[in-house]
Amino acid sequence: MATSGIEKHNANRLMELLQNRLSALNDLHLTLKHVHWNVVGPTFIGVHQMIDPQVETVRGYADVLAERIAALGGSPAGTPTAIERDRTWDDYSLGRDTVNAHLAALDVVYEGVIGSHRSAIEEAGKIDPVSEDILIGQTGELEKFQWFMRAHLEDPSGRVPHAAQGTESGAAATAR
């Protein structure tokens, strides 16, 4: 048996899964801060102020996952190399840009992070309900943050102009 009463091979898989989510959250909080510094336009201040609490929450989520990995007997990796190693997504490519461009791009980013979190929930649930619960709670809050982004871009019927775009750069171009 491994730490926490989870079989060693299951604990190893769970730590791998959580490490991937840790790297994604570390990347997300850096991306959010990047947007915070680079967003411009008439509604700049509202978006600028909306993003900082998201940065802090996402940083906290990364900490929770790192501590869970450690509790399972692993060594969480929070380095830039770990993010690069675990990355299955493209780096955020927008620099100084409009509110709409950044929010549309972030909508795509959130879609990827949330989708990956949901996949991790499914797998973690087969191994460890504690880790599953952590991921469920995080996903609910990430979905709320995504809603905040989309609310700035939606028309009254709930449509967003970038809905057909699968990349953050494509979404940004459509939203400009």
Automatic annotation (TrEMBL):
Transmembrane segments: none
Record CDD domains: DPS
Annotated segments matching region Disordered: 157-176
Positions in coiled-coil regions: none
InterPro entries hit by this protein: DPS_DNA-bd (IPR002177), DPS_DNA-bd_CS (IPR023188), Ferritin-like (IPR012347), Ferritin-like_SF (IPR009078), Ferritin_DPS_dom (IPR008331)
Source taxon at top rank: Bacteria
UniProt domain Ferritin/DPS: residue ranges: 16-155
Gene3D superfamilies reported for this sequence: 1.20.1260.10
Short name of one Pfam family: Ferritin
Family (UniProt): Belongs to the Dps family.
PANTHER family, sorted: DNA PROTECTION DURING STARVATION PROTEIN, GENERAL STRESS PROTEIN 20U
Official protein name in the record: DNA starvation/stationary phase protection protein
